[in-house]
Design goal:
This protein has 512 residues and is an alpha/beta fold. It has 14 helices and eleven strands. A hairpin with a 5-residue loop joins strand 2 and strand 3. The chain is elongated. The two termini are 42 Å apart.
């Protein structure tokens, strides 16, 4: 019977934010790479991206041999523990992914193993290649991937530079160069703040994991703190872990005072390595289990705010007026979607269904948004709630006109409108100031109603731009400095202390 090793990883630059996964299938006997898989997911959470990576790896292994034994190795404690049956899968977005992963191979043929991030470099690089490709508006391509070469080069550089096996490679990379670094706010891992350390009385590493009591505590500098799971000498020089021989054949542990030698030194080092490894494993397990029950907050905010209310903002698909760039607010003809708009809505629905993150759908009352929301909700198996506060601005007498036509007929009114958020469109339309007040009230109402949940809001250009503007604390004129395409997605997270984090703006990758 053949045996494969599947290594998988996923990351989200925002949580939720632009996300991707990577997976590699290895021959367990030779270590040779048999298959690679990676993809950009659009907007997703870290945990969803990790499960998608697991699914891709298992499917690639099954395509090679459906009767093979598979050993899955991931640096996600949450996924490993849940798929091993030791932790329950409580999040509704993860349950179908976990169930699907369990069906790829018979349970008796699959075993799960947690590994440090430094040993998951290949999958990590694939995930980042996918996210980078998505940022460029492209799909990941195996033909142009250098993940395997980069992972091997990184391993070689680690050995040459004194990095020992198991030392986090992220400590030698700029922030954002690994999928682990992309996890800015993670369901599974704690945030990277000193505040948590101050409350717990224990220093934290860059990943939020507690350092083992015997491990050297490392500082955070403005550049990046050097980080290691291994004990360090008084001079800060890492000691090589003696549980595994370094590629160069050097097996002696180093200290800041000098090299130990002889059997006595080796025995003492082995004992200490085993003790430290057990302590680190216990600390990681406690940290990961605790982190799995919380969501990291952005920036320097405290970590005890709970999960944010996350609004994924979907602009409706095109109507016949959209390509003509005509004013189309809440006081006009209320057009339905065009054929192109319905196709855009279907693509958005497919992308959101693949992510598995949306827990509720709320729509503006206008026809084009309700139609878009209905297409998405049908795909997700959800109902559509309607909130009148999400409707578009009423553009008064300008409804149905192009910008040029308005300038020709109402030049003074248009100039006033462009110069002040308090100005109303001709004929008693709604000012941007009034729109902002209405949108702010709807935001507060929905944040309270959907605290800690991820909700799809299907709405219009002005409401979405206003939500982004208010989250950023930007002035009203910023509304004229944002591009928002039909059927594009944006995302804003709202925290219990009133802070907000803009995670995404005008993403159209799902439409390509």
């Amino acid at each position: 019977m053949r045996e494969f090793i599947v290594e998988a990883d996923g990351g989200s630059r925002g949580n939720p934010g632009p996300a991707g996964y990577g997976a590699v299938v290895l021959d367990a006997a030779t270590g040779d790479t048999l298959a690679e898989a990676a993809a950009f997911l659009g907007v997703a959470t870290n945990n969803v991206a990790e499960y998608q990576g697991l699914l891709a790896g298992l499917r690639a292994a099954r395509a090679l041999d459906p009767a093979a034994r598979v050993r899955v190795r991931m640096d996600s404690k949450l996924v490993v523990e849940q798929m091993s049956g030791r932790w329950q899968v409580k999040h509704p977005a993860l349950r179908p992914l976990a169930a699907e992963a369990a069906r790829v191979f018979p349970g008796e043929l699959v075993a799960y193993e947690w590994i440090p991030r430094a040993r998951n470099k290949h999958a990590d690089r694939l995930a980042n290649e996918a996210m980078d490709a998505g940022a460029r508006g492209e799909q990941w391509s195996a033909a142009t991937s250098t993940a395997e070469l980069d992972a091997r080069a990184g391993a070689g550089a680690g050995a040459a530079g004194g990095l020992t096996e198991g030392a986090p490679l992220e400590s030698a990379l700029p922030v954002g160069d690994s999928a682990a670094a992309a996890r800015g706010g993670v369901d599974e891992r704690t945030s990277r703040t000193g505040e948590r350390a101050a409350r717990s009385g224990e220093p934290t590493s860059l990943s939020g994991e507690r350092a083992a009591p015997s491990a050297e505590r490392t500082s955070r500098t403005g550049e990046r703190a050097a980080r290691s799971d291994e004990p360090t000498s008084p001079t800060g020089e890492r000691e090589a872990r003696t549980g595994a021989r370094a590629p160069s054949g050097e097996g002696e542990a180093r200290t800041g005072e000098g090299a130990w030698s002889g059997e006595r030194a080796a025995a003492r080092t082995d004992d200490r390595a085993r003790t430290d490894e057990r302590a680190r494993a216990d600390a990681r397990a406690r940290s990961d289990e605790r982190a799995a029950r919380t969501v990291a907050s952005p920036g320097w905010a405290p970590v005890d705010l709970g999960a944010p209310a996350t609004f994924v903002l979907l602009r409706h698909g095109e109507t016949p007026l959209t390509p003509q760039k005509r004013f189309s607010g809440s006081g006009g003809s209320d057009p339905s979607l065009s054929e192109a708009g319905r196709e855009q809505a279907e693509k958005a629905a497919a992308a959101l269904a693949g992510l598995g993150t949306i827990q509720a759908v709320v729509s503006s009352p206008l026809a084009r948004t309700r139609e878009t929301a209905g297409i998405v909700a049908d795909r997700l198996g959800l109902d559509v709630a309607v909130d009148d506060g999400l409707r578009e601005t009423d553009f008064g007498a300008w409804e149905g006109m192009t910008f040029g036509e308005v300038r020709e007929r109402y030049p003074d009114d248009l100039n006033a409108w462009l110069a002040s958020a308090e100005a109303e469109p001709t004929g008693g339309g709604e000012s941007f100031a009034a729109t902002a007040e209405r949108i702010g009230a709807a935001r507060d109402r929905l944040v309270a109603a959907y605290a800690g949940r991820t909700v799809l809001l299907v709405t219009h250009v002005t409401p979405i731009k206003t939500l982004v503007r208010l989250a950023l604390g930007a002035p009203p004129e910023s509304l004229f400095r944002m591009e928002l395409s039909a059927a594009s997605m944006s995302a804003v997270a709202y925290y219990a202390d009133g802070n907000a984090s803009v995670r995404l703006l005008n993403d159209t990758s799902h439409l390509r």
